[in-house]
Write a structure and sequence with these properties.
391 residues, alpha/beta, 10-stranded mixed beta sheet
């Protein structure tokens, strides 16, 4: 792929970072800026930053197109603690004549990066760009688990044009469909209709209220561990911590919590793309939101550096196995506990139509799921996945 056809490069000078030459040890000296005049081997990178200054389908947030360079300016001023991750900044995608042109370019570029085992970090732009991110998996003909960190479900009307607050239904109805599962983390009930909650449940999608997640933030980890792509609407963070979004409210995740979640996202061995959307620099106060997003990115990279690659079950000696008999289960519940990472999985059987062959799906879970089984209870996580896989 000739990247020069798709990107306008950025430089440290173009970001107007104060006293950039004196900021020793900062990320701006370690992230490689793409230069069309100096070809590079993309396979040498672990991650690639992609700015998408697109907001034509944004709902009441047109200025979010200005976000990518504002985020870069703050991110590149942070200290680089670990030098064993290679990040390239490809620049900003050239916006298409139509919004569909932009979606197509995003899906092509993201698919190209994923194929080359490079994790794209998409800096939006509006939230509907997550739909273009998903279409990269469609282009690759790979099923995808999608996780959205968002106070709203963003379902939308299937007959209405796509919009930043209404794109998920389009994702669900895409044919052929490669969406294996969809999970929403941090939804706020008063921002979603009862009908939309019922629809999510009827599709066996996972929904987690912000209050529930904040009570035990560690429960986010198994959710994002199963994700191929994660999208973050910055309005999921409470307005006092991230004021630069017209849709944020007084409630939501605290800054420390969203950074912990970002670390879990980076830690996921399975995750292959990550996007952050809906930041409006014109509403920001003293760069507070762009700094918050910079911290989110820093923790995402930190998580990546601690990946354990223990989700493949190549060596069963690396795990402890627990077989638990639970009332109402068709078979024993089988749990695996990684000796390396302290993470848990539970086996979900998938019955073939003839009922003679059984496949096993290793579902990421938490120790809480195991403790519930010990109390003769089956977690909602297991039941939801079982019903979805055996429809």
């Amino acid at each position: 792929m000739d990247l020069s056809l798709y990107f306008d490069p950025v430089s440290v000078d173009s970001l107007h970072i104060p006293d950039a030459e004196t900021l020793t040890g900062r990320l701006l000296h370690y992230i490689l800026m793409y230069d069309p005049e100096a070809p590079l081997d993309i396979q040498e990178a672990d991650m690639a930053i992609i700015g998408v200054p697109e907001s034509r389908n944004a709902y009441q947030n047109p200025s979010c197109s200005m976000a990518p360079d504002e985020i870069r300016s703050q991110f590149y001023q942070l200290y680089n603690w670990r030098k064993d991750v290679k990040i390239i900044d490809l620049g900003n995608i050239r916006i298409g004549k139509t919004i569909e042109d932009t979606y197509q370019v995003i899906s092509e570029v993201v698919a190209y990066l994923i194929e080359n085992k490079v994790i794209p970090i998409i800096l939006g732009g509006s939230n509907d760009l997550a739909f273009a991110n998903y279409r990269a998996y469609e282009r690759l003909e790979r099923v995808a688990n999608v996780v959205a960190i968002d106070p709203c479900f963003d379902l939308g009307d299937e007959n209405a044009p796509i919009r930043s607050d209404g794109y998920v239904t389009k994702m669900v109805l895409q044919q052929p469909n490669f969406l294996l599962n969809y999970a929403n983390i941090g939804y706020q009930s008063y921002m979603n209709s009862p009908e939309s909650v019922n629809m999510m449940e009827s599709l066996f999608f996972e929904t987690y209220r912000v209050g529930l997640m904040r009570m035990n933030i560690e429960e986010v980890e198994p959710i994002v561990r199963n994700a191929d792509m994660v999208s973050l609407d910055i309005s999921a963070v409470r307005r006092p911590d991230a004021p630069g979004c017209p849709h944020s409210s007084s409630n939501g995740f605290y800054g420390e919590e969203i950074c912990q979640i970002a670390k879990y996202v980076g830690l996921s061995d399975k995750l292959s793309s990550f996007g952050i959307y809906e930041y409006d620099p014109t509403l920001d106060f003293n760069n507070q939101t762009s700094q918050m997003i910079a911290h989110i990115l820093w923790y995402f990279v930190e998580g990546f550096l601690y990946r354990q690659n223990d989700g493949q079950f190549k060596n069963k000696n690396d795990y402890r196995q627990f077989n638990i008999s639970v009332s109402g289960a068709l078979d024993e519940l089988v749990f695996f506990h990684s000796k390396k990472s302290d993470r848990w999985w539970v086996v979900v059987p998938i019955y073939q139509k003839d009922k003679e062959q059984v496949q096993h799906y290793y579902l990421p879970c938490s120790k809480r799921d195991y403790l519930l089984a010990c109390e003769d209870k089956i977690s909602d996580r297991w039941w939801r996945t079982y019903h979805k896989l055996n429809q």
